[in-house]
TrEMBL record:
One of its GO terms (molecular function) is hydrolase activity, acting on carbon-nitrogen (but not peptide) bonds, in cyclic amidines. It comes from Yoonia sediminilitoris. The lineage of its organism: Bacteria, Pseudomonadati, Pseudomonadota, Alphaproteobacteria, Rhodobacterales. The keyword Zinc applies. Residues 7-322 form the Adenosine deaminase domain. Keywords: Hydrolase, Metal-binding, Zinc. It comes from the Bacteria. This is Adenosine deaminase. Belongs to the metallo-dependent hydrolases superfamily. Adenosine and AMP deaminases family. CDD domains: ADA. Its cofactor is Zn(2+). Gene3D superfamilies: Metal-dependent hydrolases (3.20.20.140). The keyword Zinc applies.
């Protein structure tokens, strides 16, 4: 049974994390950068755990040096994603990897990404939107220029602000300034929490950063009161089961709390996070949810409706996709 052709809405991907290894290898060869140690013998990305994953990720990013590299990246990623039935995708983009937070540079990188996205939309019928992300382990001060880039470029392509990176660095309140700046500019917000930090990290993220979506959020499942709050306040979880299994945030597919959260009324959605890193695709996620929990077309239709409703795009775009 495969759900490859089922139309899918995906809210949680990291743009550079979607780069096929062969694409990064090609850029490395062009630029004569030796990053051979980040690849396994069979051509995948090699990492031992989440912290090492972040290091390997950043090493891969050293090959992405110009707006044109990001234009090619977006094309390669959307070719692959569209092949799995994804019709709408949101992706985290980081000024830190696109000119280091400089606003003029950021405009150029964005224009290149948007050019590739528009081309893919016309060719493949997939719509891409970007969520600017601060990188948590770079620290609260480094997230401020990212938030400023988000505030200055919100519009048709940039539709939100969020934070990724090492979840255990600092506490949510340390990052409030950037989230306040983005919120005051009118951007909807999401933040990685509860992938590693447990229920307290999710609760603090809601209190201090006032986000409407949480990246992962699975740690919340251990706290019934928090689960109830997520359900009541309709806080949407961007759940990435294959990523959680690969990084051992859960012990295996059968132990994943997505069903428990959904059955408690929490709005859950399904995404891939960084598909080639975690040996997954949206097809694989759906196929494994079917195999493990018996999810079928009705279940997938429900999570896609939840995802589309929670998407940060404007209503005209939402209606076009529905
Ligand atoms: N989690 C957190 N930070 C990240 C990730 C991720 O999967 N990918 C890139 N930055
Ligand atoms: Zn993520």
């Amino acid at each position: 049974m495969t759900f490859k052709s089922t139309p899918k809405v995906e809210l949680h991907t990291h743009l550079e994390g979607c780069a096929p290894p062969a694409f990064i290898k090609g850029l490395a060869a062009e630029k004569k950068i030796d990053i051979s140690k980040i690849f396994t013998a069979d051509g995948g990305y090699a990492f031992r755990n989440f912290d090492h994953f972040l290091q390997v990720y950043e090493a891969a990013c050293t090959t992405l040096q110009s707006p044109d590299d990001f234009r090619r990246l977006v094309s390669a990623v959307l070719d692959e994603t569209a092949a799995h039935g994804v019709v709408y995708m949101e992706t985290f983009v980081s000024p830190d990897f696109c000119g280091g937070g400089d606003l003029d540079a950021w405009h150029e990188y964005l224009a290149a990404m948007k050019e590739a996205a528009d081309e893919a939309e016309a060719k493949l019928g997939i719509t891409l939107r970007g969520i600017v992300t601060g990188i948590r382990h770079f620290g609260p001060d480094a997230c401020k220029p990212a938030a400023r880039c988000a505030a200055e470029t919100m519009g048709e392509f940039i539709v939100g602000y969020g934070m990724a990176g090492g979840e255990m660095v600092g506490r949510p309140a340390d990052y409030a300034y950037s989230f306040d700046m983005a919120r005051e500019a009118g951007l909807p917000l999401t933040c990685h929490a509860g992938e590693w930090g447990g229920a307290s990290m999710v609760a603090e993220t809601l209190t201090h950063l006032k986000v409407s979506r949480i990246g992962h959020g699975i740690g919340a499942a251990s706290d019934p009161a928090l689960v109830e709050k997520l359900a009541e306040e309709e806080i949407v979880l961007e759940v990435c089961p294959g990523s959680n299994v690969n990084l051992e945030a859960v012990s295996g597919w059968a132990a994943h709390p997505i069903v428990k959260l959904r059955d408690a009324g929490v709005p859950v959605t399904v995404s891939t996070d960084d598909p080639p890193f975690f040996h997954t695709t949206m097809t694989e996620e759906y196929d494994m949810l079917h195999k493990t929990f018996g999810w079928a077309e009705d279940d997938f239709a429900a999570i896609n409706a939840t995802a589309l409703k929670a998407a940060f795009c404007d209503d005209t775009t939402r209606e076009k996709i529905a």
